[in-house]
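ok trying this again, last paste got cut off
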Amino acid sequence: MRSIAVMNQKGGVGKTTSSVNLAASLARKGRKVCVIDLDPQGHASFHLGIEAGPEMTTVYDVFSQQTNLDEARQLVAENLSVVPSNIDLAATEVELAGVPGREFILRNAMQHWKDQNRFDYVIMDCPPSLGILTINALSTVGEVFIPLQPHFFALQGLSKLFETTALVKRRLNRDLKVTGVMLCLYESGTRLAADVTEDLKMFLKSSDGDAPWAQARIFRTRIRRNIKLAEAPSFGQSIFDYAPSCPGAQDYEGLADEVAAMEQTLSIPKAA
């Protein structure tokens, strides 16, 4: 089972869009996929057609240890599930402040999924911050994907993300690796996008071999800026249900092909 945290402390870079549409594309390819929505805004849940009201069991109930992931999980399409979130999740930062082992609540909750190899992919949509929810995700997963808009300031923020993954790897999760960088909102006609991409390649190439991001790849598929990707969440649909022939759908299908192809190099068995 591959567990992937999609994270960036900067908002508006395509994090939720990538989490949902990558998951949807992998599910369409026959993989069993679950999205865990760790953002109190609940955008990934809404994107998949789930509006988590106060009466609904959510990932907040998992963190407060009132339920388990299976009871919170909802099937939204063939091979695709979501553990939804809502604004209640914002309270966890305060409520867990003095709780021993608070960094491992999600890891413990997900252990039986790993033991049973319940899914082929678990994709966690992290909030745009580096607080306890993101730390829980990083303590649980084996991989990190970073969505990045190719602007100059994005590279500065990237160093903080890498520092966080190094700290978590050292103290909480020795298996943590940054395995992919997704270039989102990409405008291929601009010199800036090409320059930032080249700078990123140079940085990764010069990285220390022990760093969590030492083997990270920049996915060849660029997620182009596309209005259909922005419209799809308001209809509670992935891009494949909303506009399956648009460039955004083509891009996420290409990205999913690359992610699935990594199964061989990561020694992960393919789904039957």
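PB: full thing came through this time. Residues 268-272 have pLDDT under 50 and may be disordered.
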